[in-house]
């Protein structure tokens, strides 16, 4: 089938547009990385753009020796992993129940879920509920409130309904329970949507700081994003590092290094689930 000039022009413009868009998103991160790896004299003169000048890793050596930074990293990892697992479990089980036609009242429940897209929970009632449940200053206050997501329920429900009903019928005839069907058939066939929604939620959990700011009182329990917020927004370097260490480097170098330290781990997760993510993000867009 011949390719017309107009079609080639469209593909060229389309590719050029998304290339420029991708570079515009990547450039700020490269700039931050370059600043964190550059010598002080170049940073002070604003001569660093997207490539390090006077390669220097002393800022990272300081950060890696700070016990409280690693403790905050461990807290963030725990919240992210447990929060994502809870989100996938409760969201998928609700979505599976709503996808089964024999579930009573599923249409009403689905309508109530859709209402949450329009009306979100106000902060004060949410705070009072968490306080009355005794979850203030506990990690449960950061994990359980987001354990079910309306968007995830809708996406998973639609995906589950696309699975052949003959598989469910055959499993039922063989004596498999509903939970067995869900665990042995639905989950293995739904890894792309699990990976996609899990990644979205994990990134949200990793970057979240507001809930910890509201519900966590003990500074020993602070996640990494709270420390990052204090350094970047309030310039609280003196509270996190020794004064002698700060004087050796520019404020921008310290901030940039902390940003890379805080965002690097979640970025490295993506390549390991890329194949599931791409498939899950495009599932349902084409039908044979």
Automatic annotation (TrEMBL):
PROSITE patterns noted in UniProt: ABC_TM1
TM spans (from-to): 12-34, 72-96, 108-127, 139-160, 181-203, 256-273
Signal peptide: none
Keywords linked to the UniProt accession: Cell membrane, Membrane, Transmembrane, Transmembrane helix, Transport
Main location: membrane
Family matches, as Gene3D superfamilies: MetI-like (1.10.3720.10)
One matching Pfam family: BPD_transp_1
Compartments where located: Cell membrane
ABC transmembrane type-1 domain sequence ranges: 73-270
Topology relative to the membrane: Multi-pass membrane protein
Family according to the record: Belongs to the binding-protein-dependent transport system permease family.
Protein name per its UniProtKB record: L-arabinose transport system permease protein AraQ
